[in-house]
């Protein structure tokens, strides 16, 4: 099965311009074109796009994603390097998650604090009436 650029973009909540950019940057190296030059995305291209979106949405930069794609194109002898790149990225994501958990705890604490303050305010207001 093949997909138009519009259909592929919509599937991932992207724009066709974003897909063109990814292709230009070497992130989607195997997108085929029809005889008239229209891009046709395969299921394999969509799998790549899914991985690209995952990596990008978890904070990996275009340069690192391109490095991963290039390593993949070099074949199985780069499997270890790809694993290392993904392990490093995973550690960075886990660090950001831990940091966000701490920040979330502070926000949750503040909510509890302000809810308590609001309840005290309401009690005082009821007594005054």
Rg, Å, rounded: 24 Å
Domain count: 2
CATH-assigned fold name of the largest domain: Multidrug-efflux Transporter Regulator, Chain: A, Domain 2
The count of helical stretches stands at 5
Mean pLDDT: 95
> What structural class do the secondary elements suggest?
mainly alpha
**Major β-sheet profile:** 3 strands, antiparallel
Strand order of the largest sheet: 1-3-2
Strand content: 5-15%
- Residue stretches low in confidence (pLDDT < 50, at least 5 long) are none
CATH architecture grouping of the largest domain: Orthogonal Bundle
The total beta strand count reads: 3
Distance between the termini: 71 Å
Mass-distribution shape: elongated
Strand/helix succession: EHHEEHHH
Give the helix proportion (percent range).
Answer: over 70%
Supply the CATH class of the largest domain.
Mainly Alpha
Provide structural commentary.
72% of the residues lie in helices and 6% in strands. The relative contact order is 0.08. It folds into two domains: 73 residues, Multidrug-efflux Transporter Regulator, Chain: A, Domain 2, CATH 1.10.1660; 52 residues. It starts with a strand and ends with a helix. It has a three-stranded antiparallel β-sheet with strand order 1-3-2. The chain is mostly helical and 129 residues long. The longest helix is centred in the last third of the chain and has 50 residues. It is built from five helices and three strands; from the N terminus they run βααββααα. The model has no long low-confidence stretch (mean pLDDT 95).
């Amino acid at each position: 099965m093949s997909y138009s650029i519009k259909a592929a973009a919509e599937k991932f909540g992207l724009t066709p311009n974003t897909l063109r950019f990814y292709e230009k940057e070497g992130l989607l190296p195997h997108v085929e074109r029809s005889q008239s030059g229209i891009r046709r995305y395969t299921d394999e291209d969509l799998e790549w796009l899914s991985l690209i979106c995952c990596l990008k949405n978890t904070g990996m930069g275009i340069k690192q994603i391109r490095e991963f794609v290039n390593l993949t194109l070099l074949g199985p002898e780069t499997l270890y390097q790809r694993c290392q790149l993904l392990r490093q990225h995973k550690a960075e994501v886990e660090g950001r998650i831990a940091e966000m958990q701490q920040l979330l705890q502070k926000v949750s604490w503040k909510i509890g604090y302000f809810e308590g303050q609001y309840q005290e305010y309401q009690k005082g207001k009821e007594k005054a009436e």
